[in-house]
Amino acid sequence: MTSKLLSDLCGTVMSTNDVEKSFEKLLKDLPELALHTPRAPQVVGQFNARAVGDRILCTPYIDSNKGTADCVQAKATLDKATVLLSMSKGGKRKDSVWRSGGGQQSVNHLVKEIDTLLKESLLSGDIPEAEHCLKELEVPRFQHEVVYEAIVMNLESTRESAFKMILNLFQSS
C-alpha cells in the first residue's frame, strides 16, 4: 500500500528526485535499521524492486547505486532488487514482489496453494516441509482454511496414513 501511495504521489506532490534522495537515505541508514530488523535488506530490496516496477524509481537508479553502495546491507538490498527485477517480465508492475504478502492474494489462490500443499504433504509425508510452506504463505488468519481442507482431504481419503499425516501436521504447527 505504501508503494501504491508513493506511485500516486510521485510527480504530483513529490518529484522523482525527492523520492530517489529518500531511497538513498534509506540505503545509508540500513546498517542501523538492520540491527533492529535483521530482514531489513531483503524487505528494502523488495520495496526497491516494487518502486522500479511502479515507475517510482528508474532501473538505472538500482544499477548506479550498486557501484557506490558502501555497506554490506545496502549491497544485499540492491542485489535483492536486481534479482527480483530480472525475474519480472519487461519491468511490469510487480504486485507479487512481496511474495510474502499472503494477505494481498486472492482467496481462490490461497485455497489452491493450501490444497496443493496438503496433497504434496500427503504424498511425501514431509511434515517439516509442510510447516515451512504454511509459514511462507504468511496468512495466519487463514489457518482455518488449512484445517477445513485437511479435514475434507482426510474424509475423501481411504488411507489411514492420510489421517496420521494430517494429525502430525496439526500437532507440530
What can you tell me about this protein's structure?
Helix content is about 70%, strand content about 0%. By secondary structure, the protein is mostly helical. It has two domains: about 1-85, Serine Threonine Protein Phosphatase 5, Tetratricopeptide repeat (Alpha Horseshoe), CATH 1.25.40.180; about 100-170, Serine Threonine Protein Phosphatase 5, Tetratricopeptide repeat (Alpha Horseshoe). The longest helix has 18 residues, at about 105-125. Residues about 90-95 have low confidence and may be disordered. One of its GO terms (biological process) is negative regulation of DNA-templated transcription. One of its GO terms (molecular function) is RNA binding. It is found in: Cytoplasm; Nucleus.
- Measured between the Cα atoms of the first and last residue, the distance is 30 Å
- Radius of gyration computed on alpha carbons: 20 Å
Q: Count the beta strands.
A: 0
Task: Report the portion of residues in β strands.
Answer: under 5%
Helix content: over 70%
What gross morphology would you assign? elongated
Element order: H for helix, E for strand: HHHHHHHHHH
Task: Report the CATH C-level class of the largest domain.
Answer: Mainly Alpha
Number of domains: 2
Low-confidence stretches are 90-95
CATH architecture of the largest domain: Alpha Horseshoe
Looking at the structure, the CATH topology of the largest domain is Serine Threonine Protein Phosphatase 5, Tetratricopeptide repeat
What number is the mean pLDDT?
81
Secondary structure class reads: mainly alpha
| Alpha plus pi helix count | 10
